[in-house]
Each structure stands twice: as C-alpha cells, then as structure tokens.
Amino acid sequence: MKQKQNKAKGSLRLLLPYIAPCKWAFLLAVLMILVQSVCLAIMPSVEGGITTQLASDLMAITKGEAGAQIHYGIVLHIILTLAVVFILKTISGIISIVSVTDATQNSMRSLRNALQKKLHTLPVAYFDAHPYGDVLSRITNDVDTISNALQQTLLNIIAGVLSLVLALVMMFRINVYMALIGSLIIPLALVITAFVVRHSQKQFRLQQDAVGELNGRVTELYTGYNEILLYNKQKDAVENFKEVNARLQHHAFRAQFLSSTMSPLISLVTYLVIGTVAALGCSYALAGALTIGSLQAFIRYIWQLNDPLSQVSQMSGQIQSAFAALGRVTDFLNQQDEIPEQNPPTELGTVRGEVSFQHVNFGYGEGEIIHDLSFDVKPGQMVAIVGPTGAGKTTLINLLLRFYDVNGGQILIDGKDIRSLRRDDLRRAFGMVLQDTWLFSGTISENLRYGRLNARKDEVVAAAKSANVHHFIRTLPDGYDMQVNEEGSNISQGEKQLLTIARALLRDPEILILDEATSSVDTRLEKRLQDAMHNIMKGRTSFVIAHRLSTIRSADLILVLKDGDIVEQGTHDSLMEQGGFYSQLYNAQFTRSAG
C-alpha cells in the first residue's frame, strides 16, 4: 500500500513541472472558487432570514399585536441581498472555469510535447517490446484522461473542501450540538471512500491497461486488413477483438460498479443525519432556542456537506482512472533513454566510407545472436549481406546505425568507434532504403525532400530520374505536387519503393544501405533499377541485403551469414567455386526460379 502511495506521489511530482508555468491561472481559479464558496455559505443564512422574518410577522399578526404586519421592505432588502450574492457566485464560477480550462489545456500541451520529445530519445528496443497501439494510447487516451480529471475534478475538489469548511463554521455558529451530529457525515464518508477506493483502484489500473491493449490490437488488425481477408481470418480477427474487448468490459464494469456504490452509501448516511438533526432542531425551535430560519439554514448546510462528498464519490472513477493513466504516462517518461553520447564526442569529419567490424558480439536479450564477428570494408566497395532468415543480416545494419549498441567489440567508420560519435552525425552519413516503404501525408516533392529539405527542384528531378520514377511522377494528376494520402494507398507498392530510393539518392549519402530495396519492384523495373543503383553506388560504400541473389553478382564483397556468424566471404565467382553454403543458397534459388 505504501509503495502505491509513493508511486502516486511520484507521478504527481512529475506532473508539477507542466502545471507550474500556468500557476497564476490556477491561483486565479482557486481565488474565484473561494469567492464562490463564501457566497454559497452565505446564501442559506440569507434565505433563512426571509423565513424567520415572515414567520415572526405572521406570529405577531396571529397574536393580534398592535401594528403587526408583513414587513415587505425588509423581505425585499433580504431578497436583493440574496440576488447580489447569487450574481457574484455565478460570475466567480464562470471566471474559475475559464481560468482552469486555459491552464489545464496549456499544461497538457506541454505534457504532450514532452511525450513527443521522449519518443525521439527512446531506444529502438523499447518499440520492439511495446505495441505501437499501446504507445499511442499513452500519448492520446491517457493524456486525455488526465486532462479531463484536471479540468473537471480539480475545481470540484477545491470547491468541495472549501464548502465543507465554511459549512461546518456556519453550522457551529447556529448550534454546537447539532453541528457535532451533522459533522459525523465527514468521517463516515471518508471511511466509505477509503474502503471503495482500496477495492476499485486495481480494477481502474487493469481497465487502462486493457484500453492500451485494445488500441494495440485494433492497430494490428487494421494494418493487416488485407492479409486477414486474403487468409479468410475475419472470424478469428473478430473473436480476437471480442476477447480483448470482453476483458476491457469486465474490468471497466467492476471498476465503475465499485466506485458508483460510494454515492448512494454517502447519501444514506446524510439522510440518517438529517433525520436526527431535524428532530433535535424541532425540539430547540419549539423551546424557542432556535429560529425556524436557522433550522432551515442548518438543514441546507448539511446538504452542503453532502454535495461535495457525493460529487467526489461520483468523480472517484474519473479520479482513479486519471491516477492509473498518470502512472502509465509516468512509466513512459521514466523509461531509460538511449545510451548517452560521449562527452565531448569525436568529430566524424569528411566520411571516406571505410567500415570495420571488430570482434562484435550482440544479443537482443540474454542470448547472443552475433558471435565474435569481424570484417573490413574498403571505401567505395559494394558489400552484399546474404543468409537465411534470422541469420543476423538486418541486425548488422541496426548495429551500424546505432539503433542498438554492441555488447562487445567495436564498429569503426574511418577508424573511429561509432560509440564515440554523435548519433546525428553518424546517421547523417547514411542513406537507407528499407523493405517496408514509408511515405507520409504530403506531396511527392515533400516526401522526396524528407532527408534534404533544401534540395532544389532540378536535384529532386535528377534523383527521380536516377531511380526510374520520374516518368511515373509526370503521369500523376499534379506531378510532383500530388498529395500522398495518410496510408500512401493512392500509390502502388512498387512505385512507393522507387520513391523511397529516389529519396535516399537525393540525400547523396557517403554510405548507402539497401535492405531488400528491390523486393517490391517487378522484373522489368528491377533491371532498370539495378542499372541506376550500380551507377549511383560507384565511389560510395554500399551495403545491400538481398534474398534475390541474382541482384548481387557484381558485389565487391559478399558476406554469408548463418546463425550470427560469417561462414563465408568473397566475390560471387569465388564463392560459387568453393561450392559451400552460398553456392547451395544460390543454386536452390535458381532451381526454384527455373521451376
């Protein structure tokens, strides 16, 4: 229990830096809530004054006292006073809502900016271990939950505390014994609240986790929509979704049910106290120790005790959801960043393109998949990396770009350990084309300039021509100004691959990486693409990962990987002469192609 409280306090402390810049708006809101609460505390006494005055006048008339009458002037004065108090209460309420809304939204903007900044500092390993939908849920749903709690519950909690204090003060002014009985509502309500919260908090935490899981599952199903249709897995996809949805429904029901029992239990206590106080108050009134207006005001003050307690109980679900969401956001912000840069970093300078792996060991978890791997690449060489699935081909590229850091050994570029370089400087030397294409919502030209924003129009066109995609772009309705939609579905997969190649060429990197870059291009375009790639790779160090072994016959060096080890290396002709593992892979592929 203590550990949970410490975690909650830590989460709140993490939120303070985002709220602090808006402290004056929050303070204005609190000041206006104070004015509103004072007005609320005055109103029952003023209303009781009307009742007391009318009751006194009617009693005098009934007794036949000389000059007895209804003093309408006094009653009107009290009503006008009540109207002024009510108007002041309304105006202060409006100002407090505007202030806290502005402060909350500015705070949440800062929090979202911090989350976005955190995304850029997290290691790739974090995204490998967490579904994209869950990460997205922390940035969107969880932040919205915190925002709603701040905006909707903060004012009510502050107003509730002030109302409780002022109502108690006014009750003790009227009658001490009745006030002691009436104040029993508070400890009883706290006991009920503590009991319900203790049993429901776990369910709210499970509910938020289930929301994140559901978002992750929806993202997964949506991105694999075509494959689901292709394999007729619609029923399985629906059942899969229903399973996660049912889990969310189960935890949400238990969380909301447990929290919703708080309000009726507190109301039950309030009615029992009101009944007791009313009986005692009537006896005081009959004895002349209490006016009717004061009894009326006292009953109103009891409701002013009940209202904030009931409101807090009704908001307990939202409050607990906010704490669960805040915990998830805190966990995200507290994730360990990428290994810090060496300070001061080594200057990379002009890149020649010499690459050396020296006794490199690496594993994603406890086990290693790269074992004592060493090889050297001379500037301007084209290096092909081949091997079966899981051999470690893509892992080598991840290590070269410092998406992951080696567990042992070192990787050198121009004789400099890449761990001593700034990641930005290192990655600026590379151009990369992945098997999975990525285009963002924007024009064709904007997508091509992604790696080099200041590129001229003629340079963009030249890169497109080199990638054999210029003619295709000219056939589009708006040419280079055509808008790519959010999913990139208005461009075919092969054409998207050509565009990403043109984007890499426009950057004019010193080292080029092609990870299955031709896998989505048909045979006719592949031949044209290979010619262009050979021209662009002249004088530039290039790494090519390919399953189509026929496309790498001209490579200066072929590294054959198997189970994380280089089992063979050499040119295509030398490896074929050896008749080893590479020869088997090549002949098997050629046989399948011929068949």
From TrEMBL:
Localization annotation: Cell membrane
Topology with respect to the bilayer: Multi-pass membrane protein
SUPFAM superfamilies documented for this protein: ABC transporter transmembrane region, P-loop containing nucleoside triphosphate hydrolases
Domain ABC transporter: 355-588
Transmembrane segments: 21-46, 66-88, 154-172, 178-197, 257-278
Domain ABC transmembrane type-1 residues, every copy: 27-321
GO molecular function ontology, one term from the record: ABC-type oligopeptide transporter activity
InterPro entries: AAA+_ATPase (IPR003593), ABC1_TM_dom (IPR011527), ABC1_TM_sf (IPR036640), ABC_transporter-like_ATP-bd (IPR003439), ABC_transporter-like_CS (IPR017871), P-loop_NTPase (IPR027417), Type_1_exporter (IPR039421)
Keywords: ATP-binding, Cell membrane, Membrane, Nucleotide-binding, Transmembrane, Transmembrane helix, Transport
Name listed for the protein in its UniProt record: ABC transporter ATP-binding protein
Organism in which the protein naturally occurs: Caproicibacterium amylolyticum
